[in-house]
Amino acid sequence: MKGFAAFVLCLSLISVAHGKVYERCELARTLLNTYGFSRSTLGDWVCLVKHESSYNTAAKGGPNGGSGVTSGSYDWGLFQVNDYYWCYVSTNPAYNDCNVNCANLLDDNIADDVACAKKIHGRHGFDAWYGWINNCKGTNTESWVSDCGV
Asked: Residue span of the signal peptide, if any (predicted)?
């Protein structure tokens, strides 16, 4: 019986560490109703997340190329938060402006992801994300949420 209990505990810990892949409208409702995103920009956020992480909270992108300061950095979680500026991987982060461990951005609890994304957006707008610039900017982003009942 003890072995079975240990097995169940291990399985529950493993499932906590895994991410979640949102459905488009599920994400829209979650951002609006749980995290207070503005309805007027909700389509932009949903479009951004689609093109940054494919709605996957466990997404990790990189290493980033180029020759700039972010070369070799990684992007983490639903909003693909960059580890050079916004979150930390090691004990000596470059900036860590969101004050969060990057690994915490890969689970299915998106509260820390949302807080960081709002901070990034507050400083740089949607132009902080290439996924938004290349796929959403200048388009009818309302269409990303118009059939979601939000």
From this structure: 1-19
pLDDT of residue 115: 98
Q: Is 100 helix (H, G, I), strand (E, B) or coil?
A: coil
Q: Among 27-31, 68-72, 93-97, 137-141, which is the least confidently predicted range?
A: 68-72
**Which amino acid does the sequence have at 108?**
D
pLDDT band with cut points at 50, 70 and 90 for residue 6: very low
Encode pLDDT of 28-39 as tens digits. 999 999 999 999
Token output for 105: 């951005």
Catalytically annotated residues? 52, 75
Is the backbone peptide bond immediately before 63 cis, with ω within 30 degrees of 0? yes
Average of per-residue pLDDT across 106-127 = 98
DSSP string, 20-47: -B--HHHHHHIIIIIT---GGGHHHHHH
51 or 66, greater pLDDT: 51
CA angle 61, 73, 17 (to 5 degrees): 50
CB 32 within 8 A of CB 42: yes
Is residue 83 a contact partner of residue 73, using CB atoms and an 8 Å limit?
yes
For the chain, the first-to-last Cα distance in angstroms comes to 48
